[in-house]
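User: Hand in any protein.

Assistant:
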Amino acid sequence: QALLTESGGGFAQPGGSLMVSCSGSGFTFRRYPVTWYRQPPGKERELVARIGAWSFSKTYADSVKGRFTISRDDTRDTVYLQMNNLKPDDTGVYFCHCEDYWGQGTQVTVSS
């Protein structure tokens, strides 16, 4: 059974850092691009960052460029999203997506 599992997230003050992780199992995770989305409170889900298979490409939403870094460790079937210089607008539920699969989401809250 294919499964994506997010972990990490939590609470941070503005300017702080957090990291979220997405682990894949039950399919050949390393062969596929992985995308992080977030859903702010009361808003629609939006793309945050995407990493291609074998890390050949990385793309970011303009709102997170220079602050967030996406990476993957294919030995662990895991994709990471390092989030620095966090802002209150980064608050939301963060989801990872790969192939036809979605994780359950992990909450990130940025507040003073």
Remarks:
- The CA atoms of residues 38 and 44 lie 8 Å apart.
- The chain is about 0% helix and 50% strand.
